[in-house]
Amino acid sequence: FGHIERYEHWARHLLAMRDLQARTGGFTEFVPLPFIAMEAPLFIKGRARRGPTLREALLMHAVARMALHPLVRNIQTSWVKMGREGAGLALAAGANDLGGTLMNESISRAAGSQHGQEMPPEAMDALIRVAGRSPQQRTTLYGIPPQDQIARSYGAAPLTRTVEPRAGKLARTGSSRSRTFQLMQASTQSP
Length: 191
Known about the structure:
There is one protein chain. The chain has helices at 7-24, 41-44, 54-68, 79-93, 107-111, 121-130, 147-153, 176-188. The chain is mostly helical. α3 (54-68) packs across α4 (79-93). Residues 173-191 have low confidence and may be disordered.
């Protein structure tokens, strides 16, 4: 959310999701993912805004908690998209799930996010505690994992530095006019 749509679209989406959940019970969580614009073709071409403000992202988490209650019990925040501080604020605004530790996350980074590629369990626990919550690991379906699995998740060596190539044909360089020219050239060249 936060690219070309308006607030009424956000509201309609939440209501449609609530209705679908009432009929199917198929969702385990709702994950509001803020649009990351910096390297997104939609933004580079001038067809989208820069993404939601922090205030809008926090409101999305809070409104989702109210609109989807009690049908969708889990509202997840994406620390990769919102950063540690933003995710901590989202935990105070209605989110109850910090998402996963991730490793070598590339989708958000390719779009221009600068919030990291890994958050080990120790760091997640600290962030959750700072937000005034008690950390609890979970399975994909929100069950409690075996204690030995939880114990193994702590104390892992940090990831080695990954190579992060530029966005290639969509990399931003120079003026808007030269970016448009590069995009047009790239789209006419054969692979």
